[in-house]
Write a structure and sequence with these properties.
- The protein is α/β, with parallel strands linked by helices.
- It has 2 domains: about 170 residues, Rossmann fold, CATH 3.40.50.1970; about 180 residues, Up-down Bundle (Dehydroquinate synthase-like, alpha domain).
- Helix content is about 50%, strand content about 10%.
- It is built from 17 helices and 8 strands.
- It has a 6-stranded parallel β-sheet, sandwiched between helices. It has a two-stranded antiparallel sheet with strand order 6-7.
- Strand 6 and strand 7 form a beta hairpin.
- Helix 7 runs antiparallel to helix 8, helix 7 packs parallel to helix 9 and helix 8 packs antiparallel against helix 9.
- The protein is globular, with a radius of gyration of 20 Å.
- The chain binds NADP nicotinamide-adenine-dinucleotide phosphate and fe (iii) ion (FE).
- The site of fe (iii) ion has 6 residues, from helix 7.
Length: about 375
């Protein structure tokens, strides 16, 4: 079954093409963004004149940090209600897009931080326009919001069809200002999503051609993009792959591949995409015996052997080694095994197997 209620605009005239649809969303927008990317990407410079010409008022909430927490959602909700907004425009990477989704639900249902994860309390939402400025999360086309609980410091996502963005405006011109580190990390996130579209027990064969094409686009364009950050065709390919990765996980959800990285992000500040990338090879090898046919099809379609793929992967600086000495490994293992991503993994690891995978990145 395929379901995607988001209207997608792709390419260098995406914002203009979406103009009439943005007008239908409401009269006053809360613009949700981080500190710098809405400006650096050039989105605000193009968006604000359009809003002014169309008579749409706005209020800017630029308080979204990387890996947003529940406090940030409350601040955004308060501003949304105080300013009398009636829709949201998220500009940035996954962090502002995920924050905007949670703000939408919190404001529409008057939810406190503790209530956000309770699906029974989510009855309605405000419309969300998503304008990604990274090519990684695909959050512009997913129903997920990933947040860090401020008290427990545990990072966990939730999904609700109410928070699929109404419009996704994907223009690679907004991504040329990305640093090479963020370009690499977010591309690895997109690669993880595409692979998880195949790994997940909810895999949907109808999506396979799109997934394999997305993976090939990353293989063909990532090095080029890192060498020539302003070369638009490479960015366009990566933006497209990221979008497809989002479409994939909107149907299949993510797996252990994502769950294993979350504590590394909250404990050590490892960027989300890199936290996925550092375990990419290990997770593929762990899953391989259970998904032989799917992986054979994947490698046939991308025209590479598994060894060539791993060699390509290893050509990027993603082999992070971490000193695990100070962490409560058993707590991490329990947290990962309890995460909602685990159940749809093709193999559910035992605590011993999980410990082994985590220890593979132990610093000597
Ligand atoms: P991000 O945390 O949104 O942004 C990373 C950094 O990149 C920030 O410092 C940001 O700056 C900067 N940046 C963004 N766009 C830029 C641009 N065009 N030019 C220059 N700098 C730019 O990174 P992300 O990897 O896209 O998002 C990660 C988050 O998304 C994680 O919390 C992850 O769990 C979540 N996620 C969600 C989904 C989903 O389906 N909902 C899927 C995967 C991941 P500023 O902060 O200063 O603006
Ligand atoms: Fe991700």
């Amino acid at each position: 079954m395929l379901y995607l209620p988001t209207r997608i605009f792709l390419g260098s005239s995406a914002l203009n093409d979406a103009r009439a649809y943005i007008c239908n969303e409401g009269k006053k927008a809360l613009i949700v963004c981080g500190k710098s990317s809405a400006h650096k990407s050039g989105v605000l410079a193009e968006l604000l004149p359009i809003l002014a010409e169309e008579g749409i008022a706005h209020s800017v909430f630029s308080g979204v940090c990387e890996n947003p927490d529940l406090d940030c959602v409350t601040q955004g909700k308060d501003q949304f209600l105080r300013e009398g907004c009636d829709f949201l425009i998220a500009i940035g990477g996954g962090s502002p897009m995920d924050a905007a989704k949670a703000i939408s639900l919190a404001a529409a249902n008057k939810l406190s931080e503790d209530q956000l994860y309770d699906a029974t309390l989510r009855k309605k939402s405000y419309g969300i326009v998503a304008i990604p400025t990274t090519h990684g999360t695909g959050s512009e086309v997913t129903q997920y919001s990933v947040l860090t609980n401020t008290k427990t410091q545990i990072k966990a996502g939730f999904g609700s069809d109410l928070i699929f963005p109404r419009l996704a405006i994907v223009d690679a011109r907004y991504m040329t200002s990305l640093s090479s580190r963020v370009s690499l990390n977010t591309s690895m996130d997109a690669l993880s999503h595409l692979l998880e579209g195949i790994y997940s027990t909810k895999r949907e064969p109808l999506l396979f051609p799109m997934i394999t094409r997305g993976i090939r686009l990353i293989i063909d364009n990532l090095s080029l993009c890192l060498k020539e950050p302003d070369y638009l065709p490479a960015r366009q390919a990566l933006a497209q792959a990221s979008l497809w990765g989002g479409v994939a996980i909107a149907h299949t959800s993510t797996t252990l591949q994502h769950a294993i990285g979350y504590p590394f992000t909250t404990e050590f500040g490892v960027p989300h995409g890199l936290a996925n990338a550092m375990f990419l090879r290990q997770i593929m090898e762990f899953y391989a015996p259970a998904i032989k046919d799917e992986l054979s099809l994947l490698f046939a379609r991308i025209g590479m052997s598994p060894e060539e793929f791993i060699a390509w992967l290893n050509s990027f600086p993603i082999q992070l080694k971490v000193d695990l000495g100070g962490i409560k490994l058993e707590d991490w293992i329990e947290q990962i095994l309890n995460s909602r991503n685990i159940q749809i993994s093709p193999v559910i690891p035992t605590a011993i197997e999980l410990r082994e995978i985590i220890r593979s990145i132990q610093k000597d």
